[in-house]
Design brief:
seven-stranded mixed sheet; globular; 7 strands; alpha+beta
Length: 168
């Protein structure tokens, strides 16, 4: 087992969450064979995330061979941040902070939902550790609820989350 994966959880994710497919999320607009960036860019629910990835200069990195697992906040998740937060993070002078936030949403390995629910934590690309919890049919990472899983890309996988995770 890779070193970023920690002790397994006894609980399992319900079939309803596991059954959420890439085609079911975003109206089937997933770009076949595309990279993480291509898949995100093809889904209008990720336009804020894509803008942030571009502002952070991470398009090339997340289009690379990977593999990556991205816990992707939707536009609605970004909207839950305090007013002005997104605009401030997108400023060139805050690029380092934006990179830190975005790298806290990426695991440097491919972790499908069926594997993620067996973990109690994952080490993110930023080096920080995020807690994974399963409570009934709800799975969270660092307090963000995973709302859709296994949007497959040529260089990894995307899991959709309902809030932006902020590193400590």
């Amino acid at each position: 087992m890779p070193s970023f994966l920690k002790a397994p959880l006894a609980a399992a994710l319900t079939a309803a969450v596991l059954a959420t497919s890439a085609f079911a999320y975003g109206g089937g607009k997933q770009k076949a064979g595309g990279t993480i960036v291509d898949v995100a860019a093809a889904n209008p629910d990720f336009s804020t995330l894509v803008t942030a990835v571009q502002a952070a200069g991470l398009v090339e990195a997340l289009s690379g061979p990977g593999p990556f697992t991205v816990f992707a906040p939707t536009n609605e998740a970004f909207a839950k941040l305090p007013p002005g937060t997104v605009e401030d993070l997108l400023k060139p002078e805050n690029r380092e902070k934006l990179v830190a936030v975005l790298s806290y949403h990426v695991v440097p390995a491919k972790v499908k939902a069926a594997d993620a629910v067996k973990l109690d934590e994952a080490t993110m690309l930023s080096g920080a550790t995020a807690d994974i919890r399963v409570e009934g049919s709800t799975v969270t990472i660092d307090g963000a609820t995973i709302t859709a899983t296994d949007l497959m890309a040529s260089n990894g996988v995307i899991h959709v989350i309902d809030r932006v995770m902020l590193p400590d």
